[in-house]
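Board notes (copied after class):
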Amino acid sequence: MRRAGTGRLVKIFHNTKINCSVDHFIYMPIVKHMVENSEYRLDSLFASLSDQTRRAILLMLLEGDLTVKEIAAPFEMSLAAVSKHVQILAKAGLLTQHKSGREKWCRLDTNALKPAAFWLESYGQFLDDSFELLEELIELQGISTEVPADT
């Protein structure tokens, strides 16, 4: 942070110069950080959910807390590989881990998917509109939507 010649502060923030007056100096970097942080969180959530093994692990944890060994049991992969999947889920904030004795227990964080759900809900209106247009197109084409009965 340095003072520019005209009484304005110049700060280099993530390789970007921000020129702002003293009263806006603190506000702009905080807002930028919040936006970048929320984008990173969404990217991390969706990236962690992109793998079917990790989605299966989350389904298992819906029933209750499990040890990493219990999580690894149904998978045809090493304990180390399952542990890496668990670490990715933990880093994304989808589960928490705690150690009890020699075992590591995992617990699903039910609030972790809220940012992704909120983001997806914002696109829900487009899905509704698309289905309505599809229904109109089907009616215009004269395509029957009735399921034929088995004889």
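Comment from the instructor: The first strand starts at residue 2 and ends at 3. The CA atoms of residues 49 and 55 lie 6 Å apart.
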